[in-house]
What we know:
There is one protein chain. The protein is an alpha/beta fold. The protein folds into two domains: about 5-215, Rossmann fold (3-Layer(aba) Sandwich), CATH 3.40.50.170; about 220-315, Formyl transferase, C-terminal domain (Methionyl-tRNA Fmet Formyltransferase, Chain A, domain 2, Roll). About 25% of the residues lie in helices and about 25% in strands. It contains eight helices and 17 strands. The chain has helices at about 15-25, 50-60, 75-90, 105-110, 130-135, 175-200, 230-240, 310-315; strands at about 5-10, 30-35, 40, 45-50, 65, 95, 115-120, 125-130, 140-150, 160-165, 215, 245-250, 255-265, 275-280, 285, 290-300, 305. α1 (about 15-25) packs parallel to α2 and α5 packs antiparallel against α7 (about 230-240). The termini are far apart. It comes from Paraburkholderia acidiphila. One of its GO terms (cellular component) is cytosol.
Amino acid sequence: MSHTLRVIFAGTPEFAATALAAIHEAGFAVPLVLTQPDRPAGRGMKLQASPVKRYAQEHGIAVAQPPSLRRTGKYPEEAAAALDLLRATPHDVMVVAAYGLLLPQEVLDIPPRGCINIHGSILPRWRGAAPIHRAIEAGDDETGITLMQMDAGLDTGPMISEVRTPIAPGDTTATLHDRLAQLGAKLIVDGLLALERDGALPVTPQPAEGATYAEKIGKQEAALDWRRPAVALARQIRAFDPFPGGAATLDGAQLKLWAAEPVERSASARAEPGEILDVSPAGVVVACGEGALRLTQLQKPGGKRLSAREFLAGMPLAAGQRFQLPEAPAA
């Protein structure tokens, strides 16, 4: 089935590629895709196309990769060329998902029916770069996708629609990301169908209350501070899978921790935070500021992610050993 609505799409990672595929497969014309410039990645640090660019190229969709869209930024000529291209490309609406570049007001003013953003949280909670990670890390019970009419602020525009999903106890950023990508893809197709049918979409301003900012994940956040409660550390590890993983130093070796569960610890067990209390094939139990954490999936430097049983076969650990504490307590 073909549609009259023409969609320019802007996005970069897998989350965005899922939405682009759904829009294209639903029969909407996509005359142009914007995505981030190719970045070096992998062991050889070769330039790699984004998942969105790969999908567009495989399906014969034109791609532009401006390093900026701001005339006043570092790349004024490239930005001006991209703005000219947007104006010269006949379209009705622009859809944006995890694009990674700020859209100045000049860009937002180009599409006749505005810019719709697919955002991975229930706004106004978790505006910003890493809403999926931060929702898990904070222990939220649920999250979801919000379709939003974009304005010049950071995820501050009025809301069009939303869909919610519970955060399961075993969810990692990887599993929740994939679920939200599918939900976002369905929600945007439904939104575009409604826009085509009705000519406009109803919008609701975001509530002023409850806004939080989901800061980008930094590698330096990976270090586990054993003085924190075990429950918080377990959430941190789930939030940081697949990147950057939980990190902990034992006898000078930096280990990555990929899965863990909080466990009770007997009141009589006197142990400093970071001290190993018990080692068994079921996991390595480490004392925390509150409770203890059973590590069930670990990785040594240069190794693979392994179950505790497989890991211990290659790197035996013993009760009484202590993980190093980071220098300053985590905020």
